[in-house]
Amino acid sequence: MIAGSLKKFLNTKVDEYNQPFFIEHDPVSIPHLFSKKQDIEISAFFAAIFSWGNRTTIVQKSKELMQRMDMSPYKFCLDPDSKKLNGLKKFKHRTFNQDDLFYFISFLHHHYKKSSSLETAFSKWMDGNDCNTEKALNGFKKYFFSLEHLKRTEKHISCPFQKSACKRLNMFLRWMVRQDDKGVDFAIWKKIKPSQLICPVDLHVARVARRLDLLKRKQTDWLAAVELTNNLKQLDTNDPVKYDFALFNLGIIENF
Description:
With 256 residues, the chain is mainly alpha-helical. The protein has one domain. It contains twelve helices and no strands. Helix 1 crosses helix 12 and helix 10 packs across helix 12 (243-252). The longest helix has 15 residues, at 3-17. The chain is globular and about 60 Å long.
């Protein structure tokens, strides 16, 4: 495909999938259960962290956790007393276990005591001149694990410094930052610009991107995510990660 026809093709796919019907079977459905900003942030964060494996299971386990938090995750994290925490015992999703969950809650409690939004946990590490969110993700991981914690829990938060593609956190940032009128992403964060976002890359997105000559790098790592995003910026400078809708669904639904 030449550049013009590729852009037209991908824009058509974005329009096809960036629609309210996409929400129901996707992890983004979890934050859509809430209206309070902090509830949206916390539920989206957990849904993104749980996002590996079967989407149905991801949604089910995310919803289970929200129910255990009495469908008020912000209130729960602000006052995580022992009685409340007892209701979370034995929660597990793949390798994410009770110990990991208790640490995540302790961090959220710590952060929200100082800030009214989870946005600052990312945005304070970068500025408007940064071309992408690399500093934000590296800074967030260091900040996230600044409290006493088990070493095993660190595997659940990735960062570019470790050469990870950071698919789950990039997806979380997309949900919080992207602005359009389709109703899938939330656009509740303003300190990070949509043009600074990095496209979430998993094996399916990488396969489609390579087939469309949007990605040459063989490893699916941070440099691959940056390469893909830079190529997508040639199609839309201000909102490159909108093409996540196209690439993901071409890979998952259409088996492109």
